[in-house]
From TrEMBL:
UniProt superkingdom: Bacteria
One Pfam family here: Methyltransf_25
GO biological processes: methylation
GO molecular function, one term: methyltransferase activity
InterPro entries per record: Methyltransf_25, SAM-dependent_MTases_sf
Keyword Nucleotide-binding recorded: no
Keywords of the record: Methyltransferase, Transferase
Gene3D superfamilies (alphabetical): Vaccinia Virus protein VP39
Domain Methyltransferase: residue ranges: 164-257
Protein name: Methyltransferase Type
Length: 328
């Protein structure tokens, strides 16, 4: 009976890896643009020869793709990518979500696999912003699509004359606000140089962009602002520094002004598996920090002279919330 139970448990674990194989296959396809190369139907040998790639490994990738349903083979032996993979897992597709695969497979999964060593060594990794800043900015841009309706609703309702986006990334929120609300004074602050440069190229000139460290910016900012966006940012600050951060933000917010925070909420009623895994990733780094809880945010509001108006989920399966504060 013991051996049967062991076998059944092993079988369950093997079965659960099927979804990982699909993610791995899609990631490799996205990284090498393979779904685009096989879009019209092609022989593996031809692709391998054209790009001087290892044909045996490419054949193995194709074999997995046929098994998981990402690829199909016609009667002539040519391999063709499924349309959905071309749409969602090619770099040059407007509908591509492949950057999320990169963040998961190149940043999150390797960190979680290091957990045994990190626990035993009492050690932590160091997150390399210059190496992964653009990847994180692109995945944040994906999140914007889910958060944008709530953000635009806030802007429409509160009618701010000025807005500040701290850690603005590629500036998606600023671009949308600029397009819909003419004449508003808009400012974005972004620390990563490459991300800042890309944002500067794509945003209108009348949106002010600053390539600065956030803390330095807040310490030297004198102009008040009606709306401050603090999106995907809190976990870059230790828990004991978040009070000072929110106080500084509150001080530059006009009375009655609004502050929006977007973050996964730990131990909320949504996104249990995702938020626990995301929190495990964060706490494995010396320069990334635990996700906030709703009680922590309420306490931060109290000590910062703010009132929490709402906390609404924007991606329930991921535990992502938008929390709105007003300055007292």
């Amino acid at each position: 009976m013991l051996e049967v139970r062991r076998f059944l448990q092993a079988r369950k674990w093997m079965k659960s890896n099927e979804s990982f194989l699909k993610t791995w296959h899609a990631h490799v396809g996205y990284k090498l643009n393979l779904f685009r190369l096989f879009e019209s139907g092609e022989k593996v040998h031809t692709i391998a020869k054209t790009y001087d790639w290892d044909e045996e490994l490419l054949e193995s990738w194709v074999d997995v793709g046929l098994s998981v349903g990402h690829l199909k083979k016609n009667i002539t032996g040519r391999i063709k990518a499924k349309k959905k993979m071309v749409r969602f897992a090619t770099v040059d597709s407007d509908e591509s979500a492949g950057i999320l695969l990169r963040e998961m497979m190149e940043l999150h999964i390797p960190t979680l696999l290091e957990y045994p060593d990190l626990i035993q060594r009492k050690d932590k990794r160091v997150y390399q912003d210059q190496a992964f800043g653009e990847v994180v900015a692109e995945t944040s841009a994906l999140l914007e699509k889910a958060a944008l309706p709530a953000v635009m609703k806030l802007v429409t309702k509160s009618k701010p004359g000025s807005a500040l986006d701290l850690g603005c990334g590629y500036g998606g929120y600023l671009a949308k606000i600029h397009h819909q609300f003419k004449g508003m004074k808009l400012t974005g602050v972004e620390k990563n140089r490459d991300v800042f440069n890309y944002a500067r190229q794509r945003l209108p000139d009348d949106i002010q962009l600053l390539n600065q460290d956030l803390t330095a910016f807040l310490n030297n900012q004198n102009d008040s602002v009606d709306l401050v966006m603090v999106h995907n940012l809190l976990y870059y600050f230790p828990k004991d520094k978040r009070g000072a951060l929110l106080k500084n933000i509150s001080e530059l917010t006009t009375p009655g002004g609004k502050i929006s925070i977007i973050t996964p909420i730990h131990h909320s009623q949504y996104g249990g598996m995702f938020t626990s895994a995301f929190n495990a990733f964060m706490t494995a780094h010396a320069n990334l920090y635990p996700l906030p809880t709703i009680d922590e945010l309420k306490e931060l509001a109290t000590i910062s002279g703010l009132t929490m108006l709402s906390a609404e989920p924007i991606i329930k399966e991921g535990g992502w919330f938008i929390i709105i504060f007003t300055k007292n």
